[in-house]
Amino acid sequence: MYYLGIDNGLNGGLVLIDENEMIVQKHVMPFIQGKKKEFDVTEINNIIHRMSVLSSRENEKLYGFLEEARVQPVSGKRASFTTGLCYGMFQGFLTAYEIPYEIVAPKTWQKELLKGLASDTKVASIMFSQRKYPKVDWTPTERSRKAHDGLTDACCIAIYGKRMKGDKK
């Protein structure tokens, strides 16, 4: 079985793990940089499609976990629209590729996985992911020096989902 964790913001990521919590694929959220940063919808579709094909080819079930999107009171109109767009887009892609999924509230997975780590959840997800996978490069590009919290959040969401589904078996 494969588990897909999705941190669905413009600075988010997608991480696919297997039954043993080994990372199969990881992707920084694709975007197009113009006057303003926009989602690269075609590339997001391609990534989800490739994951779907991989699971079918290997005769493995694929299950998605999408982080619940919430508009913050301080968010502007554009940020609110972008958040809703991405949230709906992922639900559409997962449904179109017949990937069963659950929506997970950020506080739910954070409470479960980030106990005893930094109070800043972004820092804590980086710490958790780096400790669990010390040989994995969490930077978004080869030139980057800082870990990408969208990738580490997506990783944590996938692990949370795997552990949650595993408990129900």
> What is the CATH topology assignment?
Nucleotidyltransferase, domain 5
Instruction: Note the quaternary state here.
Output: single chain
CATH class category name: Alpha Beta
Average residue pLDDT: 91
The fraction of residues in strands falls at 15-25%
| Structural class assignment | alpha/beta
Radius of gyration, rounded? 15 Å
Describe this structure in words.
The protein has 169 residues and is α/β, with parallel strands linked by helices. The chain has a single domain (2-168), classed as 2-Layer Sandwich (Nucleotidyltransferase, domain 5), CATH 3.30.420.10. It has helices spanning 41-57, 77-96, 106-113, 121-132, 149-168, and strands spanning 2-7, 13-18, 23-28, 31-33, 37-39, 62-67, 101-104. Strands 3-2-1-6-7 form a five-stranded mixed β-sheet. The longest helix is centred in the middle third of the chain and has 20 residues, at 77-96.
